[in-house]
Amino acid sequence: MANQVTETSRPDGRNRMVDIVIIIVITAASLLCLMPMLHILALSMSGNSAIMAGRVTLLPIDIDFTAYRTVFGNMQMIRSLGFTILLVSIFTVISMTMTIMAAYPLTKRHLKGRDVFLFIIVITMFFSGGMIPEYLLVRNLHLLDSIWALILPGAINAFYLLIIKTFFTSIPVELEESARIDGASQYRVLFSVVLPLSLPVLATLSLFYAVGRWNGFMDALLYITNSNLYPLQLRLYEMVVNSQVNSMLEGLSSVAPVPESLKAASIMFATLPILLVYPWLQRYFVSGMMIGAVKG
């Protein structure tokens, strides 16, 4: 009987072939996602002559770190990096706090007007006032040229709110009831029971909020004119636009376009900090932390 179970539990040749195909497909997809980053990295470390000749692909040629020395020696880029880190930190904390505080009450069926609140939130996912009304609102609130113009208008994402609400709803009611029997208030239940069990979704959405704010530049382009408040992505946008303009004017004046290696080094400079956050949060992405929380 044991031999029979062992034989049936062994994967046959067909299963092995399927596993091999899956591994090959996933590996190819991973390489396709990684190749653009490797190309930019190679450009940032290559000499301008090799770049202009089109000889740089995935490996640097004529290794030259002049572009990185230029980027790290540019105080405007360093100032924008520090401001962006501060902006993303404040934005993520405020966004997650407001999203959690809005999502948790919506999980309570006895909340009056809950369906109306949900309907209003869902409506904002499909309809918005548009760019001009939003700009007028920010201007009338006297938020122009301030860090709050980059934080408050997008502080809550309706889709993320619904995700957290759905996750909160999946937490067994018995856990909250046992906490209330012990005399815990709603706030104590939220901070001592619900949030510790929600670390995977909280970490994931915190990363989504942070990445979205880190990559955003359009609102800064509209609301910010003070160069000291330029986020890093707006600096990159200016560099690309100025490079295109300089390229068109190159034959009419002495203006030279921005070297490709410098643009690539600036992209790496703006990308690596947010990439370093992912490994720190990766361990929370595995769900199933509530297995065994409710014991029969």
How would you characterize the overall build of this protein?
The structure is a single chain. This protein is an all-alpha fold. The protein folds into two domains: 51 residues; 210 residues, MetI-like fold (Orthogonal Bundle), CATH 1.10.3720. Helix 4 packs across helix 14, helix 5 packs across helix 8 and helix 13 packs antiparallel against helix 14. It is globular and about 70 Å long. It starts with a helix and ends in a 14-residue tail after the last helix. The C terminus is likely disordered.
Keywords:
296 residues; mainly alpha; MetI-like fold; 2 domains; 68% helix; disordered C terminus
Task: Please outline what is shown here.
The protein is an all-alpha fold and 296 residues long. It is built from 15 helices and no strands.
Protein topology:
Elements: H1 2-9, H2 13-44, H3 48-52, H4 66-72, H5 75-103, H6 114-126, H7 131-140, H8 158-170, H9 173-181, H10 186-197, H11 199-215, H12 218-223, H13 232-249, H14 260-275, H15 277-282
Helix pairs in contact: 2-14, 4-14, 5-8, 5-11, 9-10, 13-14
